[in-house]
User: Fold Fimbrial outer membrane usher protein from Proteus mirabilis.
Amino acid sequence: MLKSKTICFNLYIFLGTCFSGVVYADSFFNPNLISNIDNEVADLSRFDKGEGQPEGMYSVEIYVNDEYVETKNLIFYESDASSDDTGLLPCIDNKTLTNFGITLTENSKKKSEEVESKDSACENILDKIENSSVKFDFEGQKLFLSIPQIMFKNNVRGFIPPEKWDNGINAFLLNYNFTGRNSKNFKDNVDNNNYFLNLNPGINLGSWRFRNESSWNYASGESKQINGGI
Assistant:
């Protein structure tokens, strides 16, 4: 009897192995919880599968060859050419690249101008600059651009292009230095006093810069001296 049960049990295992099907399980979020109107329900499959991030405008810190450049609002679009898990690439025009100190070749400029002529098109930096790469750190909101060194202008480190210059704010400046000395001769009952004042006022008004340097000197028994210049 025991032998018969063992044979039946083994037979069940064999049959279950031969006729078992493939079952696939996946997470699902019912979009009707957001809206009960079929035409207004958004496609949430991208988020269910954890694939990338939504395209749009993001304020990101831009790093070129691991050096911080600026914080800027950029439009990101979905692209299969993206090398990170966001699935996004930034829209960067020629003017922005020039401000980064990057010099485009004539071939790259031509391609870029053809793209800019299309209202709905967005430029791909990977197409404009060979051997370049883009990485978007979505959590840190940082954009890393890797550009070949040959594409950069021969500018001195720290050089700021004239396009980024501004007049600054209107302001009044003042630096000063004052020193003094007192001495007394008890034998002759004479006091000696010496004072020196140096003033450096200035005014910033629009693109104008006014600077002045004045000094005042006083010594006991001597005439006062005042000097100044702009």
About this structure: The helical segments are 2-18, 45-48, 94-99, 106-116, 125-128. Residues 171-229 form one domain.
